[in-house]
Amino acid sequence: MDWKELKGSSEIEHAPKSGIMLIYTRKEVIFERYQSLQDVEKRVNGQEILEVHLFDKEKEYRALASQSKRFSGHFIDKVFRAEEKDQDRIYSQEILLETVEESKTGMKKIQVNNHITYSDTGMAVIDNYRLVEVG
After folding, report:
1. Number of neighbours of residue 112 by Cβ within 10 angstroms
2. By three-state DSSP, how is residue 71 classified?
């Protein structure tokens, strides 16, 4: 997938207008702060994108490249938001960033909120997650 394809999605309209970008391309991993979606577009500059995470404190836009025939565009995308009703099913982890990433983002760590459900046998299953900017 490329940025032109993503711009055609209705979900990207709900992506955080500014925040942190974590983008996996065929050539590099991009992890830095952005001020607008135009900044993101300039940064990926026509590269083939495998995975995109645009996130702030409130929500995350995620897109994954796909070759499945079930998806007409060559990707799957969705916006994930924090919901009060799910707070008892969230396990949060703070991940420390290395010095290089800290200098690109201005942050010492990010947070991963894992959403936990339970199977019929009572086993805990992480069925989703959301990246969160820690200020």
Report:
1. 14
2. coil
